[in-house]
Write a structure and sequence with these properties.
Elements: E1 4-7, H1 12-22, E2 26-33, E3 36-43, E4 46-51, H2 56-67, H3 71-78, H4 85-94, H5 100-120, E5 125-130, E6 143-144, H6 145-155, H7 159-163, E7 173-175, H8 179-182, H9 190-198, H10 205-212, H11 216-228, E8 232-234, H12 252-274, H13 279-289, H14 292-298, H15 308-323, H16 330-351, H17 353-370, H18 377-395
Antiparallel strand pairs: 1-5, 2-3, 2-5, 3-4, 4-6, 7-8
Helix pairs in contact: 2-3, 6-11, 9-11, 12-15, 12-16, 14-16, 16-17, 16-18, 17-18
Length: 396
């Protein structure tokens, strides 16, 4: 997934995090507010490392206090704050100022602190950039992303946070029909399991409050845990007033599906001319290389077959069922981008890098021309950036 922006004040964030987990994405999830930026380094479902906030100063001050260090020695310690985590950890261990257990605890708590601050950063510009995340022994915490996410959410005590994701007592939710995600029921406590069992039959938050006797804040917290673990999503009739104005009758993800299907159709004659295989066969082979939610999204919808717009409609319906009607286009675009990259990679093997780059440039121009009246401009820019990311990967 190339760098992509979404509004953390909306419900996209609670869909993005489980998506990154189940897709086993590797890269950096950033939360930018003003001049500050919190970065979470993810590797295949693990929260490996985090940076952007000063978590070192109180840690180093506590070391100085517990070891009885002088003011000058504390000053020397604080001078280490600019060092990379790997270097800082090695220095502290070599000087016998911390034990391996203490340092490991610090790394894990720092990641939790950054995740908590990132979730609290209302209005932050959130982006994910695929990038290699080195697994360094002294700076990698390797914590299960969903597990630490659930733990952090349970500690949140700000009603304003929960109201970003739960509209109010009339809000309704539906369970996500995804066998892969039910495997993480082990992360739920008894209270959360009980709330999950109540998500059925169009019950509102108010209904669940009456049944359980929980106050709204406690129920909102449990629902948020279920949302961020990818187990529930807002029901289809929820929060219609919060949808963004787009082309009449078209949601952002509907526009995204149409545009990506148009790109695939543009590739059809090029694929059949360059590869010794039919277009359906090539698409089918690429789909088999996908995994997780991306594969589930596209399997069995007839993508690459005679009627592309029928397939686009099926994808839109499935996407809405998987993520709810207000998910935005980010996750859908990421899934299409994976498929598109696999197809273009096959073309590169047949055409060579230079012709493939020219082809990608043509696709970018076609997408830019598609941005007519009523089309979401940020979507056009996002898809163009996706194609640029593919071009850069082809060149590398």
């Amino acid at each position: 997934m190339p760098q992509s922006d979404l509004n953390s004040a909306g419900t996209d964030l609670c869909r993005l995090l489980p998506y990154l987990y189940y897709e086993q994405e590797v890269g950096i999830l950033s939360f930018r507010t003003g001049d500050s930026c919190i970065r979470l380094h993810l590797n295949g479902g693990l929260l490996v490392h985090a940076d952007g906030l000063d978590f070192e100063t109180p840690f180093l001050r506590e070391i100085a206090r517990s070891k009885g260090l002088s003011r000058d020695q504390l000053k020397d310690l604080l001078a280490l704050r600019g060092e990379a985590s790997e270097t800082l950890g090695l220095m502290l261990l070599e000087r016998n100022l911390v034990t391996p257990v203490t340092w490991d605890t610090f790394i894990r708590l720092r990641a939790r602190h950054h995740l908590s601050a990132a979730l609290a950063a209302e209005g932050a510009a959130v982006s994910f950039e695929a990038a290699e995340v080195p697994m360094q022994p002294l700076s990698s915490g390797d914590q299960d992303l969903l597990e630490v996410l659930a733990e952090v959410l349970r500690e949140v005590n700000r009603p304003s946070f929960f109201k970003r994701f739960v509209a109010g007592p009339q809000a309704r939710f539906q369970r996500v029909d995804d066998p892969e995600r039910t495997l993480r029921l082990d992360l739920l406590n008894g209270e959360e399991r009980g709330v999950l069992s109540l998500v059925k039959g169009g019950r509102t938050i108010g209904d669940m409050t009456s049944i359980t006797g929980m106050d709204h804040e406690m129920l909102y917290r449990n629902i948020c845990v279920l949302l961020f673990l990818g187990m529930v999503t807002p029901a289809c009739e929820e929060t219609k007033s919060r949808t963004r104005p787009v082309a009449p009758g078209k949601t952002d993800y509907a526009q995204a599906a149409d545009l990506y299907v148009a790109i695939l159709e543009s590739l059809r004659p090029r694929v059949t001319a360059a590869l010794d295989a039919g277009f359906e066969e090539v698409v089918g082979a690429c789909l088999k290389e996908l995994k997780g939610p991306s594969r589930k999204l596209f399997e069995g919808v007839g993508l690459g077959e005679a009627d592309p717009w029928l397939a686009a409609g099926s994808i839109r319906e499935r996407y809405e069922k998987m993520y709810g009607p207000f998910a935005g286009y980010l996750i859908l675009s990421s899934s299409f981008n994976k498929l598109l990259f696999l197809m273009i990679l096959q073309l590169k093997q047949a055409l060579g890098a230079r012709k493939t780059i020219r082809l990608i440039n043509e696709l970018q121009s076609e997408v830019a021309r598609a941005g007519g009246e009523g089309m979401n401009r940020s979507l056009i820019e996002h898809i163009t950036a996706n194609l640029k990311d593919i071009r850069d990967r082809i060149l590398s």
